[in-house]
Specification:
4 helices; binds zinc ion; three-stranded antiparallel β-sheet; 167 residues; alpha+beta; Metal Binding Protein, Guanine Nucleotide Exchange Factor, Chain A
């Protein structure tokens, strides 16, 4: 146990000193991250706070929204798969991504019907439908009815909630 604590401390120090945490480093310290395990996660916000980068925590667990045109994927058209940045759940394929002028990465359908779940959001005196990760229930973004065919849906996501791997 002591050895694990020292190792975790070491990882934290290395990440802290390099300034920008790579996805790999974040995944190493997050024991819930898996691209193969589809078991539902029930992890407290208190625990997520210890594991996640503060910017990701703010979006994923506190429903913050990153500023439009600032995320790393809004403008990307690289072929590949988008996973949940919190838990590794497979969320979207690049072939469902479309060029949206809204400034956030936008998709017309999820990778699997249970990749995401939906929740009513009545914040800011308007009704929107929030999209959460189907495995860890982290906030991803919102869904709107102005997307392209065939679904006419627009899954408007925060880049920081996504973890991309090119084909
Ligand atoms: Zn997730």
């Amino acid at each position: 146990m002591k050895a694990i604590m020292i190792w975790l401390f070491f990882i934290t120090m290395v990440c802290g000193s390099c300034g920008a945490q790579s996805g790999r480093a974040v995944q190493q310290k997050n024991p819930y991250y898996s691209r193969t395990d589809t078991t539902q996660l029930r992890v407290s916000d208190k625990e997520w706070k210890k594991l996640l980068d503060p910017q990701l925590y703010a979006v994923a667990r506190e429903q913050a929204t990153e500023a439009a045109f600032t995320g790393k994927y809004w403008n990307s058209n690289v072929k590949g798969t988008y996973y949940c940045a919190v838990c590794g759940n497979r969320l979207f394929r690049s072939n469902a991504k479309f060029a949206s002028t809204c400034g956030w990465p936008s998709f017309f359908e999820p990778a699997r019907s249970n990749s995401v779940v939906y929740k009513d959001d009545n914040a800011y005196q308007m009704h929107r439908i929030e999209v959460e990760c189907g495995r860890c229930h982290s906030h991803l973004g919102h869904i709107f009815d102005d997307g392209p065919p065939p679904t006419h849906k627009r899954y408007c996501m925060n880049s920081i909630s996504l973890d991309f791997e090119a084909d």
